[in-house]
Input
Amino acid sequence: MGPVSFVHDQRPVRVVFGAGRIGALADECDHLELTRVLLIATRYSTAAQTLLGDRVVATVTDPRAHVPVDQVHETLDLVGRSGADGVVAVGGGSSVGLAKAVALGTGVPILAVPTTYSGSEMTRVWGRTEGGRKQTGRDLRVAPRTVIYDPDLVAGLPTVTAAASAINAVAHAAEALYAPDRTALSDLAAAEAIRVVTATLARALDPTALLRGAYLAGVVLDQTTMGLHHKLCHVLGGAFDLPHASTHSVVLPHVLAYNLGDPAVAERFAAAGAHDLPAVVRRLGSGHGVPTSLRELGLSASSLDEVMNTVLAVPPVNPRPVRADAVRGVLWGAFSGVHV
Output
C-alpha cells in the first residue's frame, strides 16, 4: 500500500528530453534570459561553446569530484570577474555540483545538461568537501531551472562507467521507497526508475531508457530524504575521495539487505517488483565489470571505524536502527564484498 498521509511539494523545472536536444542549448539560454554564462563542461566543452557562441564569458573544464571548497572559491571569483548571469553545466555530478556551489553563493540560475545518470541535475541538494568532510544541504537556489537530457551525450560512456552511474540512480529510487517523506507520486516514480534501469542493465545499455530512469530517480532524490546508504557514500567520498558512482554500486546491496529486514520495507519493495533488488544490483554490477568491494576502490580496513563513527555522529533517518553493530556489519560486507 502507498502512503496514506503525505505532503507533496514540487518545484518548477523545465525538462527537455530527446536525442539531439543539445542543439536547443542556445534557445534554452534565451528562455532563461541568460546572456553571459559560465560554462562548466568536460567532454563536450568544445561542442557546448560552439552552440553558445559569444554568450560564454568564462569556462571551467576541470570540475573535481565531491566539489572541493578551494575550487568553489576559485569559481566564485571567476563568476565575479566575468559578470556571468548564469551557469551552463554540461557533464556529470562534478560539473553540476560545482554549478550548484556557484548558484548557492551568487543566486545565478543553472541550465544543466547531464552526461551521466547521477540525477543531481533534478535536485535542490548541494554538497561540498573541505578537510575530508562532505557537507550537504538543500536550497532552492541550487536547483537547475532547465535540464536538457540528450541520450546522444551518454551513448559513448564506457560500459563500466555507464553501469556504475545507472546503479547510482537505482540507489536514489531505492531509498526513496522507504523515505519518511515519500508520497504517492514518489513511490510510482521510484518503482518505475528501478524497473527501467534494472531491466535495461540486464540487456543492451540503451542510453534513452537509462536516461529516462535516471530522470525519474533524480525526481525522487529531490522529493524525499535519503537514508543510510547515501550517508555512507557521502562519508566515503568526502573523507577518502572514492569514486562516486562505484561507491554507490558497492555499498547499495549491503544497505538494502539490511533495510529489507524491516517487514514493511520488504512488503513495499515486493509491491514494486524489487523484492530481490540486492541480488539484482550485485549481479548487474559485476556483470558489467563494476567493482564489488570497497577494498577494490582503495579503502583500507583500518579506515572502517572512522567511517562508522562519522556516520553515527549524525545518524541519518533510516527504516532500521542506525547502530554501531549494524553500520559495522554493512561496512564490513561492502569492504570485503561478502554478502550475508
